[in-house]
Amino acid sequence: NSGSSWNNCDFETNLCKVLPEFNLQPGWIRRNGQSGMGPPYSDHNGNESAYFFSLSSEMHSSSATLRTNVFLPTDEEHLCQIKFHYWVSQMSGTFMMGLQKHSEDTVTKIWQVSGELRNRWNVDTITINSTEKYEV
Q1: What is the separation of C-alpha 77 from the centre of its chain, rounded to a whole number of angstroms?
Q2: Does the structure show a pLDDT above 70 at 6?
Q3: Cα 123 to Cα 44: distance, rounded to the nearest angstrom
Q4: What 3 state SS string does 58-112 have?
Q5: Residue-wise over 18-56: b if at least 16 C-beta within 10 A, else e?
Q6: Residues 118-133: what's their mean pLDDT?
């Protein structure tokens, strides 16, 4: 609708507005396909110099989190949709999205993928409904 606002995250200049700077936890690195770190050798558009986030190769046994800024409550007019491109390279790796509402201590899993789609770019969209402020 005409009231929708899109925030586009491309990681070219910074972390993008959705991911606060201080939330880049150990294990995540901003790199591109020319970094000499192995695949992917380009972003989802085939651009070798475009940046994306990647888990460093030292992170085999543990997990690393990226957390968004606080989103406002949704309603019928203002749904939240997050479209994202992802690459899974390791058989053992699991990529997961969670929702944390501000009244809750726990993170609710809302999306997950494991290694079956590995070694190619994939795209997915999640829709979030929350009557209170939340983070993803």
Answers
A1: 24
A2: yes
A3: 9
A4: HHCCCCCCCCCCCECCCCCCCCEEEEEEEEECCCCCCEEEEEEECCCCCCEEEEE
A5: ebeeeebeeebbebbbeeeeeebebbbeeeeebbbbbbe
A6: 90
Interatomic CA distance for residues 49 and 23, integer angstroms: 24
Yes or no: say if 84 and 123 are a contact pair by the CB < 8 Å rule.
yes
The enclosing H or E element of 124 equals strand 121-128
Name the pLDDT band for 111 (thresholds 50, 70, 90): very high
For 82-106, the pLDDT digits (tens) are 999 998 876 567 889 999 999 999 9
CA distance linking residue 93 with residue 63, whole number of Å: 9
> What distance in Å separates the CA atoms of residue 108 and residue 80, rounded to the nearest whole number?
16
| 95-101 and 134-135 strand pairing | antiparallel
What are 30-49's pLDDT values in tens digits? 899 999 888 899 999 999 99
Q: Tell me how far apart the alpha carbons of residues 101 and 96 are, in angstroms, rounded to a whole number.
A: 17
